[in-house]
Each structure stands twice: as C-alpha cells, then as structure tokens.
Amino acid sequence: MTPHGHFNWNEFVTRDPERAKAFYQETVGWTYQAKKLAGGGIYWIAMMDNVPVGGIFHAEGPGYENVPDGWMPYLAVDDVDIRVKKAVAAGATLMRPVFDIPDVGRLAILLQPGGAGIGWITPFA
Questions:
Q1: Domains plus CATH for the chain?
Q2: pLDDT tens, residue by residue, 1-55
C-alpha cells in the first residue's frame, strides 16, 4: 500500500479518451485495459510492461462541462474523511462528497487554495 503523503495514482481526465489513448500509445508505448464503471462508461487503465501506471477518465455528463483536459494526481492519505475536514478548514473546496470505489479505496476530489485540483485516496487493503 502507498504510504500516507505519497502519490498513489495519476489519471488523465479528458472528453476524448480515444485521442488520449492513441497519443500515449504512440509516444510512450502504453497499452490499456478497460474497466466498466458502476454508473456506466469505461475507465481505461494505462499499462506499461503489464503494470498499471495510470488511468484515463472520460469526462462526460453533468458537472464536467467546464473541466479542461488535464492530469489529476491522487495522494494517499491515512484517513480521507479526517484529512478532508482539515483541508476544508485550511481553505480547500470539496468538489463532491467523499466516495468509495469498490476494490480501490475511499476518495475525495478537492480544489486546493489557489484552484489546483487534487485527489486524495485511502486505498483499501
């Protein structure tokens, strides 16, 4: 498990996952595994030498209209719920309620002071 305070995952958020997949496949050599999302859609797990190295998330639907393409890093934290309270008290904005992804972890999506996006995750063991 990734230790508290270390980067755990990186995810490319895009309206055009096929373009992003082609770019990274051609330039870096990534291959992909499709994972069905609970709410529908596909999450693409980027692989290098059969090892997951990141993900590609299709930003579609309500709430994503003004989200530009870009990388979203995720930090591992020891307790998302406690850390989010501290982050909000320190000036961060919680973008959506904390949520669980089965077999992955408990996540929060924040805008830190200054506006940069950051994901926090307490991975499930």
A1: 1-70 (3.10.180.10), 77-125 (3.10.180.10)
A2: 899 999 999 999 999 999 999 999 999 999 999 999 888 889 999 999 999 999 9
Q: Which residues of 28-40 are buried (b: 16+ CB within 10 A; e: fewer)?
A: eebebeeeeeeee
